[in-house]
């Protein structure tokens, strides 16, 4: 079986072989500075995934294919964040997201979920992301630009409750905002029949208002999910749950328009 190899422009996760340090680098981007010395990323072009690379200080790393979450963790300027990777993954599942999808998002924030959605709709899809605060958009533009996802995103400063989503027609809408129930009439204007709306609610009151609003409109197959992840230490002799972890973050409500 032919091994997967790195191409210029790929993202690589560099994991120290005898330590806990790791970082992310763009393959073919020249030398990068790390706390373990310089790494020449040009040497990874054409190298198989899992290859060994040595820093200028003689420290060995393994080069693995990076996920979108690896890239965000290392390259993003994250402000206040409600949606965590575990929630983002479930949102992808709730939508059934894949290449070519057209998705609208209300509540851009720092662009975390925007980036995840854009990563999965590539290379033919698009994410329309709306936020009513210009300072959020400025951060999102910087973040998405750092990882070359701006070509798959249409960012707009807009209050979707007051002015809607414009003339777009999309396969799915994600609402990560303070009053998502007030945006559902606008969602119905933008969403294709059979399309999916996903609401991220951080309080029971917001969850209840959102579900009630969905039931009053033409939505079916309403579901509420809470995603809990419990991490364990992977150190031999110390295999136990982590002492501190993020468990509850919110509820993911999904429904389909008929």
From TrEMBL:
Query: Could you tell me one molecular function GO term of this UniProt entry?
Result: tRNA (adenine(58)-N1)-methyltransferase activity
UniProt keywords, alphabetically: Methyltransferase, S-adenosyl-L-methionine, Transferase, tRNA processing
Q: What InterPro entries does the annotation carry?
A: SAM-dependent_MTases_sf, TRM61_C, tRNA_MeTrfase_Gcd14
- Any one Gene Ontology BP term: tRNA methylation
Which amino acids does the record list as binding S-adenosyl-L-methionine? Answer: 110-113, 131, 136, 159, 176
Q: Which residues form the tRNA (adenine(58)-N(1))-methyltransferase catalytic subunit TRM61 C-terminal domain?
A: 77-234
Output the Gene Ontology cellular-component terms.
tRNA (m1A) methyltransferase complex
- The domain of life is Archaea
- Membrane spanning stretches: none
Could you identify this protein by its name? Beta-aspartate methyltransferase (PimT), conjectural
Give the source species.
Pyrobaculum ferrireducens
Taxonomic path:
Archaea, Thermoproteota, Thermoprotei, Thermoproteales, Thermoproteaceae
């Amino acid at each position: 079986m032919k091994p997967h190899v790195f191409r210029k422009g790929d993202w690589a996760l560099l994991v120290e072989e005898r330590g806990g340090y790791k970082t992310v680098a763009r393959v073919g981007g020249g030398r990068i500075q790390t706390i373990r010395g310089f790494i020449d990323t040009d040497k990874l072009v054409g190298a198989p995934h899992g290859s060994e690379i040595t820093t200028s200080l003689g420290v060995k790393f393994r080069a693995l294919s990076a996920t979108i979450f690896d890239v965000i963790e290392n390259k993003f300027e994250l402000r206040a964040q409600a949606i965590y990777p575990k929630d983002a993954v479930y949102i992808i599942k709730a939508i059934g997201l894949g290449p070519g999808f057209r998705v609208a998002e209300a509540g851009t924030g720092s662009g975390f979920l925007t980036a995840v959605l854009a990563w999965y709709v590539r290379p033919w899809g698009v994410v329309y992301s709306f936020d009513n605060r210009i300072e959020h958009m400025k951060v999102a533009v910087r973040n998405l630009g750092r990882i070359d996802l701006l070509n798959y995103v249409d960012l707009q400063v807009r209050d979707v409750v007051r002015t809607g989503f414009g003339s777009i027609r999309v396969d799915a809408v994600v609402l990560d905002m303070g009053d998502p129930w007030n945006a559902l009439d606008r969602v119905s204007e933008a969403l294709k029949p059979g399309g999916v709306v996903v609401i991220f609610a951080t309080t029971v009151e917001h969850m209840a208002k959102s579900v009630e609003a969905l039931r009053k409109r033409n939505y079916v197959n309403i579901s509420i999910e809470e995603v809990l992840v419990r991490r364990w230490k992977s150190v031999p002799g110390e295999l136990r749950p982590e002492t501190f972890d993020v468990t509850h973050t919110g509820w993911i409500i999904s429904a389909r328009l008929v």
